[in-house]
Amino acid sequence: MRTDTIRAAAVQIAPDLSGRAGTIERVLNAIAEAADKGAQFIVFPETFVPYYPYFSFVLPPVQQGAPHLDLMQEAVVVPSPATQAVADACAKRGVVVVLGVNERDHGSLYNAQLIFDADGTIALKRRKITPTYHERMVWGQGDGSGLKVVETKVGRVGALACWEHYNPLARYALMTQNEEIHAGQYPGSLVGDIFRDQIEVTMRHHALESGCFVVNATGWLSEEQIAQIHPDQNLQKAMRSGCMTCIISPEGRHLAEPLTSGEGILIADLDMKLIAKRKRMMDSVGHYARPELLSLNHDTREASTRHVTEAANEPQETCQDA
Question: Looking at residue 322, what is its pLDDT?
């Protein structure tokens, strides 16, 4: 039974809408600030680098070409100098970081989550399995290989992005791997108060059902940034509120007052003994499961557009003297 305490941080800050370099600088500054407060585990918002594609929520497809190309230009290649800068910061401060990025893989973009271990290695790169609604104009799909819990310095960590939390089988895939700390990531500054309320319900439910801690980060936009994305004041309403940066215990309780507006870093201590306390009563993948009735088929193969079949070696004919 785990008896240690882990200090966690959930970061709610605005990206630099001008591009990757400025947002990476904000990430590095936030890592330093959270580490100075004793944080060992730090979570950033969904596709925070360079920024979430808010344009896709308020622009019709015919007008998305230029901002989509801008996003591709500023997106993150994994690995690259951008990821190395974060890795170096993790190693320097001995912290585990979950960072959301727009990943560029040649001609495609993906909603990717990177888990950096405390030695700077990338313990996991996964892609959101199904982009949501407007996001399908921007990102490709991930696959089952990323539905993985990884061992880190702070424990067994898993991650999902935004509405992936509405896919119960995706969440169950992580539960079956005995997730101890779950990183949730949402864009923030989107949809309105109803989104904020829905995020809270979803994060608290996952903590209860999985018997793990949830550290969830949502992003933030300033009024100037909202106006920069779209000048129409009616459409600007769709880019306000919707923030619920929170840290939840396995008993479904907030461990700190959640951040629902403005920038800030939420800090809370995770008493790992609470995992056993919760699972003693209800272990959804153990004594409370009924695998002979209900079970999950999880295909962990990486999806590929190229499958190579090597030519078989044909036997060579030899000439022999009569």
Answer: 45
Domain 5-281 is of which CATH architecture?
4-Layer Sandwich (3.60)
Which one of the listed residues 125, 128, 148, 279 is annotated catalytic?
Answer: 128
Per-state percent for the chain, helix, strand, coil, to nearest 5: 35, 25, 45
- In the set 90, 135, 162, 180, the catalytic residue is 162
Establish whether 246 is a catalytic residue. Answer: no
Distance, in Å, from the CA atom of 58 to the CA atom of 42, rounded to the nearest integer, reads: 30
Q: Are the C-beta atoms of 46 and 187 separated by less than 8 Å?
A: yes
d(CA 247, CA 254): 6
pLDDT of 315 reads: 65
Residue 237 annotated to the active site: no
Which residue in 46, 135, 179, 180 is the catalytic one?
A: 46
Q: What is the pLDDT of residue 120?
A: 98
Query: Is residue 25 annotated as a catalytic residue, yes or no?
Result: no
Q: Please give the Cα distance from 222 to 297 (Å, whole number).
A: 43
Asked if 95 and 40 touch (Cβ cutoff 8 Å), the reply is yes
